[in-house]
Write a structure and sequence with these properties.
mainly alpha; single chain
Amino acid sequence: ATENAVIIEQILNGSEGPSADVTCLNAAAVLQVADIAPDWHEALKLARAATASGAARETLRTIRDFTSQFAS
């Protein structure tokens, strides 16, 4: 779990490579299924932009902060 957390942090901090590519492809698939992006090309563009801009990192931080209040 710790290793996966490190990989996720690296991806969200702009690291490139196969793990980042797969993460963006998965995010693009979600964007298409949710009808947020009109096509695969736009979905992938949005996913990569969310990572590059730091928006994905901030969303993870928000989720982490919210869920930490329920930790025992």
